[in-house]
Design a protein that fits this description.
InterPro entries: Endo/exonu/phosph_ase_sf, P-loop_NTPase, PIF1_helicase. The chain is of the alpha+beta class. It is about 20% helix and about 30% strand. The strands form five sheets. It has a six-stranded mixed sheet. The chain has a six-stranded mixed sheet with strand order 11-12-13-14-16-15, with helices on one face. The relative contact order is 0.10. The chain has two domains: about 100 residues, no CATH class; about 220 residues, Deoxyribonuclease I, Chain A (4-Layer Sandwich), CATH 3.60.10. The protein has nine helices and 18 strands. The longest helix is centred in the N-terminal third of the chain and has 11 residues.
C-alpha cells in the first residue's frame, strides 16, 4: 500500500542540524546539517569471523541462497559476532540446526578429551598429602600490587605457610589472605619501596607458632631484612630478602644474628631471595654450611625470568624429609619455590 506514491514500508529519515564552535573558547560557529546515518556492511558469515559488533543482523530470508548451507558451525559463527543478545537481530525464520549425532566428529573428540584429560603441570601442588607441611617462598615484588594474584593462586591457598620477600609493605597497612594469619614482617616506615619480608600461616598452624624473628640491617640503598618463626619448637623458618645492591658481607653479618634465635640441635630452613648466584662452590653456600650446618635443598636451576639462580632454600633437617619444587608466577620476575616438609 502506498501513500502519495511512497510505500508505507519505508522509514522516514529527517535531517538534523547541529552547531558548534571551531575551537574551545572561539567565536566562529559552524552549522552542520546532515542525515543521521552511519555506514553499514553486508558481509558473508565467513568474512565476519574474528569480529565483534554491538549490533548484528543475520538475514535468512532467501531460502534458495542458504539451502543446505546454514549448518551448526555457520550459525555459531554468525550468532557469536554480537556482543549481547540485545544487539542480535534475525531477519526471517530461525530454524535450529540438526542435533549432533552420536558418531559425529565433535562427539568423538569430546569423549576422547574426557578419557584423556589434560593434567596441569602443577596440579599435584594443589593437593597436599597428610603429614606434610607445604611452604611457599616467593619474591612477590610488592604484596601491595599482587595481593589478588596471591589470593587466587590455588598452590598458595593450598599451602600451610606463605613467606614473601620484597613485600613493599608499610607498617600501617594490613593484607588479608583468606584462611591465613600474618605471623611476622619487617617494619617499613614512610613510603613503600623494595623492602622487607612477610610470613603468613594457616589458621590451624598459628597455634603451633612459639616465637617470632624480625631483623633489619643497612640503609635505604643497601639493606637486608630477615623475619621468621619457630614451629612447635621443632622447626625454625627464616625468611631472607637481600637487596640487590647489598654486599655479601652485609648479608653474612645479618644472618649471623639469626644464631641468637636458634639452637644448634634444632631443625632449620633458611629461604628467600639472597640476590647472590647459588652456583656450585659459591661463597654464600660455604658460609651457610660453616655457620649453620645447612645444605642447599633447592635445585641449581633458574628462579627468575633472566635465568639467574638467586632464590633458594638452605636447611639442616634431622626430623623431616624435604622436597623443593620451582613453581611459576605471572605477576613477578621471580618464580616461587614450594617446599614440602614430610614429618617422619
Amino acid at each position: 500500500m502506498t501513500t502519495n506514491q511512497i510505500s508505507n514500508r519505508w522509514t522516514p529519515i529527517k535531517t538534523m542540524k547541529k552547531s558548534f564552535y571551531t575551537c574551545q573558547g572561539g567565536s566562529v560557529q559552524v552549522a552542520r546539517e546532515q542525515f543521521p546515518l552511519v555506514m553499514a556492511e553486508a558481509i558473508t558469515i565467513h568474512k565476519s569471523q574474528g569480529r565483534s559488533e554491538s549490533k548484528i543482523v543475520i538475514d535468512v530470508r532467501n531460502p534458495s541462497k542458504i539451502k543446505n548451507h546454514m549448518d551448526r558451525q555457520k550459525w555459531y559463527v554468525a550468532l557469536s559476532r554480537a556482543r549481547s543478545l540485545n544487539g542480535l537481530y534475525i531477519l526471517g525464520a530461525f530454524k535450529p540446526p540438526n542435533e549432533i549425532k552420536p558418531d559425529d566428529d565433535v562427539n568423538a573428540e569430546m569423549n576422547r578429551l574426557r578419557q584423556n584429560p589434560l593434567v596441569p603441570k602443577y596440579q599435584f601442588l594443589r593437593v597436599v598429602p597428610e603429614n606434610v607441611i607445604q611452604i611457599v617462598s616467593h619474591n612477590t615484588q610488592s604484596i601491595r600490587k599482587h595481593i589478588t594474584t596471591i589470593v587466587s593462586d590455588q598452590v598458595f591457598s593450598s599451602s600451610h605457610i606463605v613467606t614473601l620477600q620484597e613485600s613493599w609493605a608499610i607498617d600501617n597497612e594490613s593484607y588479608n589472605i583468606p584462611d591465613f594469619e600474618e605471623i611476622s614482617r619487617n617494619r617499613l616506615m614512610g613510603r613503600p619501596r623494595a623492602f622487607g619480608t612477610m610470613n603468613f600461616c594457616k589458621l590451624n598452624i598459628e597455634a603451633r607458632i612459639v616465637d617470632r624473628i624480625e631483623i633489619e640491617k643497612g640503609n635505604s640503598n643497601n639493606h637486608v631484612e630477615i623475619s621468621g618463626f619457630k614451629l612447635d619448637n621443632r622447626l625454625t623458618i627464616i625468611n631472607v630478602y637481600n637487596n640487590p645492591s647489598s654486599s655479601l658481607e652485609l648479608l653474612k653479618e645479618t644472618l649471623l644474628e639469626v644464631k641468637d634465635y636458634i639452637d644448634e640441635s634444632e631443625n632449620i630452613l633458611i629461604l628467600g631471595d639472597f640476590n647472590h648466584e647459588l652456583k656450585l662452590g659459591n661463597q654464600l653456600e660455604s658460609f651457610m654450611l660453616g655457620t649453620f650446618g645447612t645444605s642447599l635443598f633447592s635445585r641449581r636451576e633458574s628462579t627468575t625470568n633472566t635465568r639467574t639462580v638467586i632464590d633458594g632454600v638452605f636447611g639442616r633437617i634431622d626430623d623431616y624429609n624435604v622436597e623443593v619444587f620451582i613453581y611459576e608466577s605471572y605477576a613477578s620476575h621471580h618464580k616461587p619455590l614450594v617446599i614440602r616438609v614430610h614429618e617422619l
